[in-house]
Design brief:
mainly alpha, elongated
């Protein structure tokens, strides 16, 4: 339960967006060409789809190997951790 902005779950550092800082300039002509921007977006889509596919495969394997009681605990833990990231 979170109250007054205090979360029960530890928050991971949000420093990954610092890698995108060079692309945040208003003068995009000097920072990235069209081909570099297209390549970045293409790789982001490929990595997002690949990560989602691998995570889904891992979930299916885990749910097949675990008992129903442990699968339910896994669902609760996953929901709680994702809810803490929404804060």
């Amino acid at each position: 339960m979170a109250t007054a902005g205090i979360s029960v779950f530890p928050q991971p550092p949000k420093i990954g967006s610092l890698l995108l800082l060079p692309l945040a300039s208003f003068d995009l002509a000097d920072t990235a060409s069209v081909s570099e921007t297209f390549r970045f977006v293409a790789w982001a889509l490929v990595m997002g789809l690949a990560g989602s596919w691998i995570a889904t495969w891992c979930w299916v394997v885990a749910s097949c190997r675990l008992s129903l009681a442990l699968s339910a605990q896994l669902i609760v833990a996953e929901t709680g951790s994702s809810a803490s990231l929404m804060d």
